[in-house]
Amino acid sequence: MKFNRNFFLSILLIAALTALAGCQSKPKGKAVKSDIPLTTIPSGTFVDPPDEFKFVFQPILFDFDRSSIRTDMKQSLSQVAQWMSVHSKVLLRLEGHCDERGTEEYNLALGERRALAVRELLVAKGVTAERLTTISYGEERPANSEHNEFAWAENRRVEFKLAQ
Amino acid sequence: MMNKKKYAFLITVILNISFLIIFENIALCREIKITISKKLDRKIRVAILPFFAKKYDNSDILTARELYSTIKFDIKNSGYFELWPQKTKFTDKILKKGKNIDSADYDFWFEHTTELVIKGYYDIQGTEVFIKFVCFDIAAQSVILSEQIVSARKNLRTAAHSLCGKLIKLFSGARPPITNTSIAYVKEVNGIKNIFITDYDGQNARQLTFNSNLTINPAWHNTSLFYVSYKENGYPFVFMRDLTSANIKKISARPGLNAFPAVSPDGKKIALTLSFNGNPEIYILNIDGSILKRVTYNPATDTSPAWAPESNRIAFVSDRTGTPQIYTVDYRTGTPKRVSYRGSYNTSPDWCPTKKSSLIVYTSLYGKNSELYLLDVNNGNIKRLTTTLESEESPSWAPDGIHISYTLTQNFKSDIYFMDVRDSIAVQITDEENNCTSSTWGPN
Predict the structure, then answer these.
(1) Cis omega (within 30 of 0) on the bond before A27?
(2) Domain with A55 in it
(3) Looking at this predicted complex, what is its ipTM?
(4) pLDDT value at position A43?
């Protein structure tokens, strides 16, 4: 009987503590962050990566309403960084996209945030910031125009465009 | 025994905390009550009689019809009147009484519990038309408004809107009538988005920009329209177009995102989202495009600024807590305050333009469906405006502070609607174009 009551009370205590913890919102991202400014708008024409390098420049995919780089995408970005160190004259344009869910307005900012997140990681991997520029298309240019989970997963992406 | 006491104490503490949490949540979800005027708790009953030709052989069915439909739309959607009687059909005998411009049939209308009667006539003189507009107060047995106007025949609807505006002004107090306002929106034609403008009643829709790339984010300031276009080298820049001279001026073309222009009500500052610093942040620009102040300093996305009526505070969206929520900030001090707590996706705020108003309208997303909400930033009270299975988003206040325009999306097809926030009845503006979004209500 006593054991039962103690057990019941512990459950209640745990539940209450969980509820309390849930109320505190966790801040997102790093506490201190130095932004890497975009200094110029490159005048060159950016085109799709040539076929022989398509495998390097696979779109970087994101989770819904998130701009953090997924762990399964980091390998792909290392490839891009390495390619960039070999081809030192190439400029890269990072094009951020969102799926059709969420508001059109917010998605335009989210697309830019995604492109900037990719840029930050490439800079961390040694690519010069001046070689990387960003653009957001929000939900305006889906890669897959269907309306389902698969299409949305494909559309939450950052694409790469190259210029000399 | 000791144990029991300990536990009892613990339980009391836990229960107290739980109650506090629950109570706080309830407090946040209290409803907003919006009263427009203390004198009115219901709408005034109005009968509109068809306008007749002053000279019988000079009658024109199109003019009569256009006058009647314009006046009916304005009165019905003003927020102050309802058409009355609702069901009784007017017989020819009653309609003929409309020709007596000197007096209303007071006893007859009184019996039908109608409170106001609108009558009038038109007289076509070449390319011009003379309109007489009279409104009778049935209970007082007197004329409350008698107006006449001469207008070009092609501007007949504008003239009718002005006459209705004068009548509405008698009841709306400080709230400006919206009968002569326009709404700007984005329309996609053959995969290309451009800015269009329509009268608030959905008539006279016309294309404003003819770019071959994306053109979005329209925002009014007096007779100018700000917008974002990707027309230069494919990057999103902010432009300002003077609607009278058609001159276009580039406002911001910095690297990265230049988006969501919002001009302060005093006309001196522009709030924008810029990312040239490496992250989307809110900036305040002088009207010439030079930077006055950076407002946000946060590694999260800060976007979608909307000005408060006094031109110092703005509402904006930030995902600094992990989900997009609405914040307010005085741009001079830069200390943001979170104001939206319910839901995990609250975006696109617009601040009510009425002097000293603390009401924000915004979009809240639940799963695939988005709804419109009103939020009082002073006390956190909210009111849900839409409950349909369709998605509503991107609300914009009319200058009267009681109407909002918004996008309604059904089966991936979007049109512009407006509503009176007090009764939430949807009025469709774009005519099943199926590809219209991002409306913004113009000044009067």
Answers:
(1) no
(2) 44-163
(3) 0.87
(4) 82
